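User: Fold this one for me? It's coproporphyrinogen oxidase.
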Amino acid sequence: MHPKNPHAPTMHFNYRYFETEEWNGIPGQWWFGGGTDITPNFVVEEDMRHFHGTYKEVCDRHDPAWYPKFKKWCDEYFLIGHRGETRGLGGIFFDDLNDRDPDKIFAFSTEAANSVVKAYTPLVVRHKDDPYTEQEKAWQQVRRGR
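Assistant: Here's what I get for coproporphyrinogen oxidase.
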């Protein structure tokens, strides 16, 4: 999601399930992956508390160890190493998740995907009509290029 207004943050999300069949003696496999992350051009702490709080609540309902683990994974995944900066302010990210009953992981993945609107829409509504300068719009374009 790339809003026109530079004061409304960019957000990315995807959730996925993979399954392979046995092939040539290699056993079949399955796993879930995905995440939701936020990239504000201009940081509003209240917005970030809301966004991250939404995903902490989702994770905590399924496994309290997940939020710190998946947030760290997101922070590391979106690090721009050669620039020494992060792409955004994180969120949650996971991959190869198959360590418990698949229905339980599916329930978590579904709730996380269904929480995108709750986590993100209030931020866009709050900032979509904020006034902005040409310099702020230019900064938004720089951030999008990363």
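One thing worth pointing out: The radius of gyration is 17 Å.
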